[in-house]
Amino acid sequence: MSKGREPSASRSMAASAVSALKEAGRRVARPASAAQRYQALDLLATLAAVVDGQGRVLFANAALEDALGISRRSINGSRLQDCFTEPPLLDNALQGAHGNEFAALRYDAWLRRPAHEPLPVHVVVARADTEGEVIVELLPLEQQTRQEREERLLDQAQANKELIRNLAHEIKNPLGGIRGAAQLLQMELESKELIEYTQVIIHEADRLQTLVDRLLAPHRRPHVVGDVNIHEVFERVRSLILAEFPRGLRVVRDYDTSIPEFRGDREQLIQAVLNIAHNAAQALGERIAAGDGEIIFRTRVGRQVTFGKQRYRLALELHVIDNGPGVPDSIRDRVFFPLVSGREGGSGLGLTLAQTFVQQHHGLIECDSVPGRTDFKILIPLP
User: What per-residue confidence (pLDDT) applies to 13?
Assistant: First the structure.
């Protein structure tokens, strides 16, 4: 792949990663070996290597070892250029680094992987603090795209949170005045027709009050942490869904029963999963009518999972999968926005609240949808 300018989000992300790599080298005394100086790089989710002037690998982090499928012992001492489909690109970058031609050089390339297809990566080359050493960071382009999407989701969720809180408070205060004035007016009226109008005002004010309360609910209720069995959560949701949709819907269990209990807010997690499952069931209207509606509850433990710019050794992967028509294209990028709904009469709050509850567990909800299969995946880090 040729050199090119990266998006601003990935540029800042790469710059911060390079800074972290340099800081890792500073923290260890100079006489130590490269492996000792740069062992903190094993904590990074991105692929990283420290090389000398000829490109020989002095240190490769665990992520690079996993991506190449080669042991670190085999990588160390080899030429990093040979891991690329176009070695001269890295040769030129290393020459520039040693000639002080730049602080950091970025370009796109293909990483060779034994027994696998080449991996497209974004390469960042920067001089290390130790003389003669260069840090090479490789960010898989698929991972980069995913990280940018997750960053947008997190920023969007934070903006939604502030918007909802401010808007709800602005609505709530005049709403109480409107309802109170309508009640006082109703007491002065004798005409039944006019009283009906005031009752309409009171009823609609109460409906809006209920909506406002739902908007504020996640921010009012304290986060109550205790031991949670995730399968008890799913079983509770399953019973509620089947009680509402007793015919034409099959809820399939696909559980990893070895998942241990973890610390979390059981009620919030029930509500989050219920909101997603309820949306799925409502989207399956035609399938349920035909008798072949299906929702799958799947639980797994992911290892070395990266989301929210962090890498976690273990994370819960919870899936709610349905065989419905899929999320409409018109709202696919806004599905977690408040008041956005693909169903007529929907409040558009279910997924927004679910995302809020999951984020209070330092997690994230992702959506992958095509006609016939929609998968909402909940990721929650485990200690």
Answer: 46
Task: State how far the alpha carbon of 200 is from the alpha carbons of 98, 173, 195, 196, 207, in Å.
Answer: 77, 19, 9, 6, 10
What are the tens digits of pLDDT across the range 355-383?
888 888 988 888 888 899 999 999 999 88
Residues 6 or more apart in contact with residue 176 via CB below 8 angstroms: none
CATH of domain 226-382: 3.30.565.10
Pairing of strands 373-382, 310-322: antiparallel
Report pTM.
0.54
Protein fold of 8-144: Beta-Lactamase (3.30.450)
pLDDT at 352: 81
55-91 pLDDT, tens digit per residue, is: 999 999 888 888 888 888 888 899 999 999 899 998 8
Output the pLDDT for position 121: 87
For residue 53, report the phi and psi dihedrals to the nearest 5 degrees: -65, -25
Return the pLDDT at 274. Answer: 92
Intra-chain end-to-end CA distance of the chain, in Å: 39
Contacts of 126 (CB under 8 A, 6+ apart): 18, 21, 22, 97, 103, 104, 105, 134, 135, 137
Q: Which residue stretches of the chain have pLDDT < 50?
A: 1-14, 16, 21, 27-31
Whole-number Å distance between alpha carbons of 364 and 203: 37
- Give the residue extent of every domain in the chain: 8-144, 147-220, 226-382
